[in-house]
Design goal:
The protein is α/β, with parallel strands linked by helices. It is about 45% helix and about 15% strand. The strands form 2 sheets. The chain has a 7-stranded mixed sheet with strand order 1-7-6-5-4-2-3, sandwiched between helices. It has a 3-stranded antiparallel sheet with strand order 8-10-9, with helices on one face. Helix 12 (about 235-250) runs parallel beside helix 14 (about 310-330). It binds pyridoxal-5'-phosphate.
Length: about 325
Amino acid sequence: MLEAMRTAPLGDDVYGEDPTVNKLEELAAKKMGKEAALLTTSGTQANLVSVLSQTKRGEEVILEAEAHMYYYEAGAFSAFGGLIPRLVKGQFGILTPQEIESNLRPPNIHFPPTSLVCIENTHNRAGGTIWTPSETKAVYDFAHRRGLKVHMDGARIFNAAIAQGIDVTELTKYADSLMFCLSKGLSAPVGSLAVGDREFIDRARRYRKMLGGGMRQAGVIAAAGIIAIEKMVGRLKDDHANAQFLAKGLASIQGIEINPARVQTNIVVYDVSGLGTNGNKWVEKLLESRVKAGALEDNRIRMVTHRGIEREDIEYALDVAEKTATDIRNR
Ligand SMILES: Cc1ncc(COP(=O)(O)O)c(C=O)c1O
């Protein structure tokens, strides 16, 4: 990637003149089975320009209750788009048409009109869980029957495709717009793409400019992104195997609660309340031995497998977790 970045042909992308950015955007659109794509600085920016492009101020957006877009994106679409989130609790991050329907309000002067449903595949806070094509289709068909658009936060959409052994378009065809990240498992240093039809991308490009995301000679970033898409998708299965290995090892530690069958991709979420400790203390203890984890809330811990984390590293992490759990229990 660094070599590709060093030698990439460059131009001014704000004028559409960076050949490497253009190549990446064409490649991304083709991969996703859509007309066009737009390189953004981050997943957060791609989600934001997408939602702004799909809605009008004062409208309501439906999201799963633990959606990244609601939880971790600093309230961006409400702050910049004047949009109102309506949260619908799903099962493991997945929504059904019935769950959405029971939260849809009829047209009425008292209610903000609903215009967009956002779905997240894989679902981060639910532990990297997967939407299947049929689950996605069900929500997409329902949304369209009600005149709603669907935006897919597909930060890790290739993980969802690889885990199901399907082409990514089997999932993306049920979204009007989507975003995916070149960073994360695809291992590029920076960048995400918003993807959809040409008119959508034209609107998104203008919003990206407003947000300061016109990046001039952005080919240096795009060059790594091209490699991410062309060469790094296949490696995601190794992350999934490592996550499974981690989950099974954690499940065998007394006081840790996790169902490895629920670990579908590269995110491992488990509960440490059985150890009588709390999440932050557990994370601190692991870090003393250079094992990084994050506390989702009081007792839930999140760990992620990615490039550079090999089987031996997981073995080491499990060893540290086992010793830490034993120390806590013997306190
Ligand atoms: C599901 C999901 N959506 C969006 C994002 C945002 O991506 P970024 O960190 O590039 O802004 C993340 C980041 O972790 C994510 O997990």
